[in-house]
Design goal:
The chain has nine helices and no strands. The chain is an all-alpha fold.
Amino acid sequence: MASEQLKYVVKVLNEPPFNKNYSVIVFDSIDGRHLLKLLNEVFAQIDSKQNVDIDEEEPEQTTTRMLNLLRIFKYRPASDQPEQILEGLADGNKSVIHPILEWTFRHAEDHKKRAYLAQFLVKVDVPMDMLADDEVNDVYRRYVGSIDEFKNLHKQCEIGRAHV
């Protein structure tokens, strides 16, 4: 990560609500486990459902949860290798986590909005064999219709706010 980006991340971490009091050198030397905890703390500031003690969570669960949140945030890593992100999150690799922190801070308000909306817009996966049941299929179609209705109402609300 470029030094300007590193300085930006440290600057944000030293401000409320984090109040870390890091120098660039100290931040750059944080070990993988603590870096992962720090990333989790940042994610918890954006989405309270992420406020999980990763010492109490299985490492695979932590990685999956963080990857799901990054998917909701529409994170696009510089690398075209998703397995590198997966391994980097699992290991607390700073070459993966530092850019995620920088990107997360630069777009924090958008991420808060996406995290809020995700609870209404992320569809529940229903196995195809269950959808073969007419009643389940009908309920699922109404559910998807409600999501579409919510999207339209939310767009109208956002347009109304923009005109105020």
